[in-house]
Amino acid sequence: MSVEVHIRQGFRGFDLDVRFEAPVGLTVLFGSSGSGKTSVINAVAGLSKPKKSRVVVNDAVLSDSAAGVWVPTHQRSLGYVFQEGRLFPHMSVRKNLMYGNGLAKARPEVASFDQVVDILGIAALLERRPSELSGGEKQRVAIGRALLARPKLILADEPLAALDEPRKAEILPYFERLRDEFSLPILYVTHSIAEVARLATTVVALKEGKVDRVGTAAEVLSDPSFTPMGPRAVGAVLEAVVAQHHEDGLTELSANGVALMLPEVGHPTGHKVRVRVAAHDVILSREAPKGLSALNIVEGKVHSVRSGGGPGAIVSVDTKAGRILARITRRSAAALELSEGVRCYAVMKSVSVAPQDIGTR
Amino acid sequence: MSVEVHIRQGFRGFDLDVRFEAPVGLTVLFGSSGSGKTSVINAVAGLSKPKKSRVVVNDAVLSDSAAGVWVPTHQRSLGYVFQEGRLFPHMSVRKNLMYGNGLAKARPEVASFDQVVDILGIAALLERRPSELSGGEKQRVAIGRALLARPKLILADEPLAALDEPRKAEILPYFERLRDEFSLPILYVTHSIAEVARLATTVVALKEGKVDRVGTAAEVLSDPSFTPMGPRAVGAVLEAVVAQHHEDGLTELSANGVALMLPEVGHPTGHKVRVRVAAHDVILSREAPKGLSALNIVEGKVHSVRSGGGPGAIVSVDTKAGRILARITRRSAAALELSEGVRCYAVMKSVSVAPQDIGTR
Amino acid sequence: RAEQISIFAAASLQEAVSDVISRFEEKSGHKITASFAGSSTLARQVAYGAPADVVMLANVKWMTYLNNKGLLAKENINTRFGNELALVVPVSIAASSKEGVVADLSEILKSGKVAMALVEAVPAGIYGREALQSLGLWEGIRPNVVETDNVRAALALVALGEVAAGIVYATDAEVDDRVRIAARFTADLHSKIVYPTAVVTGQDRPEVLEFMTYMESDAAREAFANRGFVVLEETQ
Amino acid sequence: MTEWLGPQEWAAVGLSLKVAFWAMLGAVVPGVLVAYALARWDFFGKQIVNVLVHLPLVLPPVATGYLLLVTFGTQGLIGGALKEIGVVFAFRWTGAALAAAVMAFPLLVRSIRLSIEAIDPKLEQAAATLGASRLMVFFTVTVPLMLPGLLAGMVLAFAKAMGEFGATITFVSNIPGQTRTLPSAIYAFLQVPGGETAAMRLVVVSIIVAAGALILSEVLARRIARKVGQA
Amino acid sequence: MTEWLGPQEWAAVGLSLKVAFWAMLGAVVPGVLVAYALARWDFFGKQIVNVLVHLPLVLPPVATGYLLLVTFGTQGLIGGALKEIGVVFAFRWTGAALAAAVMAFPLLVRSIRLSIEAIDPKLEQAAATLGASRLMVFFTVTVPLMLPGLLAGMVLAFAKAMGEFGATITFVSNIPGQTRTLPSAIYAFLQVPGGETAAMRLVVVSIIVAAGALILSEVLARRIARKVGQA
Ligand SMILES: Nc1ncnc2c1ncn2[C@@H]1O[C@H](COP(=O)(O)OP(=O)(O)OP(=O)(O)O)[C@@H](O)[C@H]1O
Ligand SMILES: Nc1ncnc2c1ncn2[C@@H]1O[C@H](COP(=O)(O)OP(=O)(O)OP(=O)(O)O)[C@@H](O)[C@H]1O
Ligand SMILES: [Mg+2]
Ligand SMILES: [Mg+2]
């Protein structure tokens, strides 16, 4: 276990009682506004001192109220991206960025100054004061500051919320690298399903201060009964390897031998990747469809049909590539006579596998 | 024209020169981080006094540097949701909410206190201080405060950025109502395509302090050459009326006589709606597809095929329902021999028209 | 009938005047309020319209200043009381000279600092300087002089043993048992130390004059004498 | 206890409290205005106002007292005019309050100014977008947020007013029951041989009064801090 | 100009500047520490410290001077001990600086404390997450952010030190060239009939010096404000 957290704390009218363990990787804290995500992260950072707490990161006990252990915040080797920036108003952007870096000379860097400035696109801002930055610029500097502090544990509270899509797409891979190349444990708060799908090793869903659910990203996302993320969040996560890069810009993945075509994936042949296929992007057909623009058609057998209260139903189809979820109307399910054990074809447009939904693993 | 804005202003290393006009409705300001969105809104609010500015809202001249007109901020009848909350720390949530309301007794309400508290889910927080709120809770109170100020112009700077999907889904319709029922002009900053598609009457795209593009939401979103929103943003916007509510929960829309099936749409029969069909959600087929779970299949004629640098291509198909965009791979386009004038079928899953993408008009 | 009388008196007269006042009040039934402050302060206040009926200052110059402004009822200025200067040393310092022998002064003064009231501004300091000048000691002592804003502060320095000696009024010196009078300066060494008393112009109401008369009385003289003041025989 | 201090001393305590209270209160409104102007406005002669405000601190109290006497005395420039309309400061307790207020003014202004400068103007902007006029913003946002500084300034002003001596005795003299405040009384005792003990008694009284005021202010400060949410 | 003031007066001006400067400087470090403790810590006897800090304001300066004399005089408790190690305050300009520092101390502490209390602890927390120890946080975040208060406090302290009279003359008396500061000189002139003009000359000098210090501080304050980004 890379992260073990147990926190019990009370505010006026709000009780936090959270306990979870997460393996090596990036743990997403997920939950509606006010469910206690920031409170958990603050306790992990040692910024609040809960009545009861036990926080262990990579075998290092950061706090254990039972044993009377309490490592002060500044010795926890953190990189905390706060929900509200918290840049030092009296320092230039450059000094803000270098603040933690200078204090932790002994630890290895996870990113060089130039790298961070480049990825975050803040080269032009270095000599400005925080008061002269836009909302998104502040947020980017805050991310950079945390990364440059040579952290051994990253805490990120909605780090990308204020950014535009292209900028997010540039920064996201960097969190992947921290997770994979540097094996840094990361606690990450987000409301974005794309980010969950792409980054999360483990998802911890909070609800009113309690743990609602813990599981791998694949488990949580592919559970049709788990709705707090909204219906669009449901989808399957397939494991695949990069098989070939085609000349027309498509990349062929192999999911347990099944070929999947995707727009260019920036990983070398042989690289293992995760592909999320959102349930609402999958079309089912009883016969092998012909003459469709969709490139990925996989045969399989219906594992289950679940219909909720609304007009929709989630059909799980076991294919050679893995279990695929399709969100279709009940009407279609009836028309196609889909039921357990029925053979069918899952049609996925190559492009419907959004680039954000391809993560390395 | 409901809103006319012309602003010229210089910061250290950043020049803002923005000029646009927008018709009645909600105008989305769109652009990457640091492109000048907040600066424009601040100038409209009268919080910054640009070198040159002309702001006219619903025929009321709020500022005109040439004519020496400058209406002070507090007389502009605003409801401004700031990017960073700005709640009054010394007042309870309730007092924060009622602050503007008490000052503008003369103007009509756009929302009652109870309504706002209910929609935003902040009933339990009313007696708290802002310092006792979570990030998303602060944001919600800030929205409520602006709405309760009986505004005649709403300025909203990424109002939903810090909120989870279900909460967003609850609040979004409210902005629609403000736009439609109250005919309030709204300037709205967002990075979310879903919000653009759903809310925007007009989109003003900013780039490095200049207007990059102005157009209706349909125009801008369906322009495959307009990429700042990321490839997922491209899609067609169809005009339709609610034709029938089926018993299985599906709603039948009629787009110029073409039947479209959608999950329940909360509008009465006869109501006009806008439906966005994201290009990446459309599959094309040369033959009429059979036995597919997708309910909506529309025949049409290829208007154009555009391929960019990557593996994808955007195919515009003129159908009776309107022009539909499909984002497919170049490989498929070649395989299906799609070219101008070719007849084909556009396959849209009913559920792929996401509820957020259905707006009233 | 009981009338109100307001007296502005130099701070150094506080006790003696208070004694006189209580006796006078008892006798006459009038009510007196006395304000004690530095002579310069009082004089200036009278000049700016202070509600004083009688002023008693420790400083002839300030009385002259008032008189020149026509603020004093001329027929009612008198000078009944005076004082002496003394050299005091802390009791802790062993007596090295007999009281009254000024010749040994330089010896005492050599041993350390001498506290005096401001030698240019405050009467006690001015008298002291004059005395030392008459004795031809001033130039030698000057570097050792520490000046205070009033005599009492000078006395306090001696009492606390911070200085070797101080030049103060004998009235002050006699009461503080932490100091010992090492020498008295004879009256001929400096200008005469007197406390002129006067009625403010326009305030010569019967009860005020009654008080002025009482100040001439034996009872008043006794009160002043008890506090160590010199009672002068003639009004000057 | 009543025997511990004589009636005259009790009168001095009461007078000092009255003087300090009114000095503090009287200085608040002009203090806030001047502090606001110095903190937020740029106007011609700003530095002159700033110097004037600090003057009572820079000058020896006697000099300030003398200047007060010259201007606010019955014969003085302003004092004469005020006398016409029946307002007299000279040799009244009101004058003692005026002197104390003047002496405390720089302390009050500085504290309030500091607090005003620490207020995020963005909050005032937010209030303006919600329809609050300048005046409304001032009273509903600026004033509540500057309370810590106001309170600190009032404590300093009260304390200073309790201790003010030089300017007071010079301006309004030392009239028992009228202008004889605690410091004047202490001074008077120190002028009398052997008066140290009596003086020390009054010093102790001063300290007790001041401690009471301070603790009260700390309690208030805590409440304010909790309100503003920093506690 | 040189003729306008005599050499004695010039000496007084120089001495006053020296005394005020060192008083201000000497009070800064303890001032910051005490202010920090009062603002951020809860400790036993906090209110006692608070009262002690304010004491010089509450007591008449003469009393403070007298207490200083009793404690820091050569015969005093602390003064005696310090004398052993060669530190003497009595009748030296250092004593004048000490008196001025003590009198200015409450003003300094209050200003700094106000500024510290206005600092958002969240910024200090942020520094801690970045690996800064308490001390490091203090020096890199707290101190820079409290600069406005520090500066305001130093201005007040300097001004107060320039004007301090009662405690100074009581503690170190008035020795030309040693402890004869401007206020002492002004006081002396005011004791003599007709000395007003000479006193006023020195008052003008005081005002000029104070104005210089104030304007300098305003320039610095602007720079700090720009740094901290509120300007
Ligand atoms: N006070 C200021 N001084 C100097 N530059 C400023 C100031 N305020 C904003 N800027 C700069 O102006 C540009 C536009 O800022 P603005 O806040 O309008 O951006 P934005 O479009 O709202 O971005 P975001 O989405 O990140 O909030 C940015 O480059 C920013 O750094
Ligand atoms: N200082 C406080 N005093 C009282 N209640 C608090 C305090 N801080 C947080 N809370 C409450 O605790 C709950 C959890 O807050 P927290 O900030 O952890 O939420 P969150 O999950 O981060 O939400 P968001 O997504 O909106 O940031 C909320 O209901 C909040 O109102
Ligand atoms: Mg949060
Ligand atoms: Mg912005």
Automatic annotation (TrEMBL), chains A, B:
<dbReference type="GO" id="GO:0005524">
    <property type="term" value="F:ATP binding"/>
</dbReference>
<feature type="domain" description="Mop">
    <location>
        <begin position="291"/>
        <end position="357"/>
    </location>
</feature>
<keyword id="KW-0472">Membrane</keyword>
<dbReference type="InterPro" id="IPR050334">
    <property type="entry name" value="Molybdenum_import_ModC"/>
</dbReference>
<keyword id="KW-0547">Nucleotide-binding</keyword>
<dbReference type="InterPro" id="IPR027417">
    <property type="entry name" value="P-loop_NTPase"/>
</dbReference>
<dbReference type="InterPro" id="IPR017871">
    <property type="entry name" value="ABC_transporter-like_CS"/>
</dbReference>
<keyword id="KW-0813">Transport</keyword>
<dbReference type="InterPro" id="IPR003593">
    <property type="entry name" value="AAA+_ATPase"/>
</dbReference>
<feature type="domain" description="ABC transporter">
    <location>
        <begin position="1"/>
        <end position="233"/>
    </location>
</feature>
<keyword id="KW-0997">Cell inner membrane</keyword>
<dbReference type="Pfam" id="PF03459">
    <property type="entry name" value="TOBE"/>
</dbReference>
<keyword id="KW-1278">Translocase</keyword>
<dbReference type="InterPro" id="IPR003439">
    <property type="entry name" value="ABC_transporter-like_ATP-bd"/>
</dbReference>
<dbReference type="InterPro" id="IPR005116">
    <property type="entry name" value="Transp-assoc_OB_typ1"/>
</dbReference>
<dbReference type="InterPro" id="IPR004606">
    <property type="entry name" value="Mop_domain"/>
</dbReference>
<dbReference type="Pfam" id="PF00005">
    <property type="entry name" value="ABC_tran"/>
</dbReference>
<protein>
    <submittedName>
        <fullName>Molybdate transport system ATP-binding protein</fullName>
    </submittedName>
</protein>
<dbReference type="InterPro" id="IPR008995">
    <property type="entry name" value="Mo/tungstate-bd_C_term_dom"/>
</dbReference>
<keyword id="KW-0067">ATP-binding</keyword>
<keyword id="KW-1003">Cell membrane</keyword>
<keyword id="KW-0500">Molybdenum</keyword>
UniProtKB/TrEMBL annotation, chains D, E:
<keyword id="KW-0500">Molybdenum</keyword>
<dbReference type="InterPro" id="IPR035906">
    <property type="entry name" value="MetI-like_sf"/>
</dbReference>
<protein>
    <recommendedName>
        <fullName>Molybdenum transport system permease</fullName>
    </recommendedName>
</protein>
<comment type="function">
    <text>Part of the binding-protein-dependent transport system for molybdenum; probably responsible for the translocation of the substrate across the membrane.</text>
</comment>
<keyword id="KW-0813">Transport</keyword>
<dbReference type="InterPro" id="IPR000515">
    <property type="entry name" value="MetI-like"/>
</dbReference>
<feature type="transmembrane region" description="Helical">
    <location>
        <begin position="85"/>
        <end position="109"/>
    </location>
</feature>
<dbReference type="Pfam" id="PF00528">
    <property type="entry name" value="BPD_transp_1"/>
</dbReference>
<feature type="domain" description="ABC transmembrane type-1">
    <location>
        <begin position="13"/>
        <end position="215"/>
    </location>
</feature>
<keyword id="KW-1133">Transmembrane helix</keyword>
<keyword id="KW-1003">Cell membrane</keyword>
<keyword id="KW-0472">Membrane</keyword>
<feature type="transmembrane region" description="Helical">
    <location>
        <begin position="135"/>
        <end position="159"/>
    </location>
</feature>
<dbReference type="InterPro" id="IPR011867">
    <property type="entry name" value="ModB_ABC"/>
</dbReference>
<feature type="transmembrane region" description="Helical">
    <location>
        <begin position="198"/>
        <end position="221"/>
    </location>
</feature>
<feature type="transmembrane region" description="Helical">
    <location>
        <begin position="20"/>
        <end position="39"/>
    </location>
</feature>
<keyword id="KW-0997">Cell inner membrane</keyword>
<feature type="transmembrane region" description="Helical">
    <location>
        <begin position="51"/>
        <end position="73"/>
    </location>
</feature>
<keyword id="KW-0812">Transmembrane</keyword>
<comment type="similarity">
    <text>Belongs to the binding-protein-dependent transport system permease family. CysTW subfamily.</text>
</comment>
